[in-house]
Every structure is written in C-alpha cells, then in structure tokens.
Amino acid sequence: MLAKVELLTAIAGTNRGVITAEVDRTLVLDKVVQLELQNPTPQPLAERDRLSGVWRLMYTTSQDLLGLVRMPLVPAGAIYQCIRGQELKLYNILELQGLPFLEGVICVSARLTPVSEQRVQVNFERSILGLKGIMNYPSIDALVSGLETQSPVNALNIPLNSDRSAGWLETTYLDDDLRIGRGNNDSLFVLTRI
To answer: Which pLDDT belongs to residue 128?
Structure first.
C-alpha cells in the first residue's frame, strides 16, 4: 500500500518525532490522514485480537513522550506499547540505555474503558521503574506477564491516582503491522507491531 510506505518514509529519521520541523510534522500529518481514509479496521475494539500485541512507537507528537526521549542524562531506548485487548489493559514501556548493567526500564500500566468502537478511556494505574538486570527483564511479554500477576521484585512500584492520570486514545488506523492512534492533547502515535 503506497500510503503506508509514504508515511513510514516520512517518519524515518525523525527519532520518533524529536527531530522535526514544522514542514516535517505537516507532511507526516498529511500522510496519516491519507492512510486513515483507507483504514481496514474501522471498529478496532470489535477486533481485539488484531489490536492486541506489542507495538513499537515509531513517531509521536505527545510532548510527554518526547520529553522522556529528550532526557539528557539517561538516553531513551525503544518505546513500546503492549495491548492486552481481551483484558482491556495497556502497558507503555520505555527502555533506558546506559552503561552495561545500568540499563533501565519504565513501565506504566493502564486500564482501558471503551467509549466508542474506536476510542477508549485510559486510566493509568501504576508505574514501575527498575534496572533491567536486577528485574530479570528478558522480554516485554515476560515483563507484562509478571506485572499482571505481581509487582516485580527489585523495582520501584509507584501507584498512580487513576482519576488524575487519565486520558483517551482513539485507534484511527489498524492493520496487521501498523497502528495509528490519536489521543488527548492533540497527540498522534504511529506504531508498528513487533
């Protein structure tokens, strides 16, 4: 699909949206709108198996996420979003780069409440911060599975006030390997399945 290739080409080299000028953001938004018009899954919450999985963030306009990527002392690595559609759970995972044995991970878990066939209310419940080596972080799936059953050992567990830590997310495009979402504060997310 040409529109998909054009979008991925437009976001290549933007470091998830950190390195963009106004002309770049306008081009990306234009490509997103073109792709959204061809959305093969107009009711993503009716196809939760397709929505579920581990997604890697390729581009965003979210100032909260871009602020984390720009942290000067601890370089940000990959950012993932794991969706468990049947359970209506979401996990945002940021890997922190550093010296060997000092690489970290931040994970924020949230409960999803459907608002429409495309939109969910996102209520963040807790945040986990730890060092990968101490937490025994072999993979995203293992981390998320562990979070669903218990709190990780040797990690800082920060409960969040879900009433104050809330937002919404609307899936505007979904196929087998690409997802586009829009959220509160005019945020845009482009993610690829891993």
So the answer is: 86
